[in-house]
Amino acid sequence: KREYCVQYRESEFDFISRLLEEEGIFYFFEHEENKHTLVMGDSPSAHKAIQGESQIIFHEPRPGQVADEAHIYTFNYTQEILPGKVTLKDYNFKKPALNLKGDKTAEKNTDLEVYDYPGKFEEPGRGKHLAKVRLEEYQTVKKEGSGATTCTHFAAGFFFTMKKYPRDDFNKKYLLTQHQLSASQPQVLEETAGDGGSSFSSSFECIPFDVPYRPDRVTPKPVVEGSQTAIVVGPKGEEIYTNEHGQIKVQFHWD
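RESULT FIELD:
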């Protein structure tokens, strides 16, 4: 529940995107032969394995060796030191004695804390949830993998398991967060018939599957430039209409 929520000088897509990002809700597309489905979720249970064989071997290209099956031929892994604790604080004038504080702590780097006010919540339970989402947002990019593959079934939002990488601790399940596919077949065009054969490349980014994915809050929130006037509204015949806190209700000219 939000005390006030409005779309202001932004597209429908931007409005929905920033709300989803604030709530930690992600989405991806599931493509099938006769339909395309938008999948939304906030937990790992929303993800499925890639189509076909989901266990993909790592095979580094070497002269005279050719892999007969789909494989990953480059893979890089990065780790960052990121905040291990998030604390959100707020105040509700209706309940001034209520301690509105929500926090969440990771297993490591707990001395690296992000503290934010206002936390934008009115109940302690909501604050704890938002702190959990914010911490998971930071933890999402703590460990990231990237690489290239010959597999044609990779797609963002789906997971795979890598096998036969030289470092055994890298052989595990990963969630695909980005995927770029490029293919060309110049010989089908008369003007480029002599420009060479077909080409295909597939690059990807991923995170360990045991790390909950949360989208970055990248969609900008519109800012009101200066003050605005509005019309005070209320029931017909009421000259002064306020609630129990002395607050009035207004309607903006653009609403």
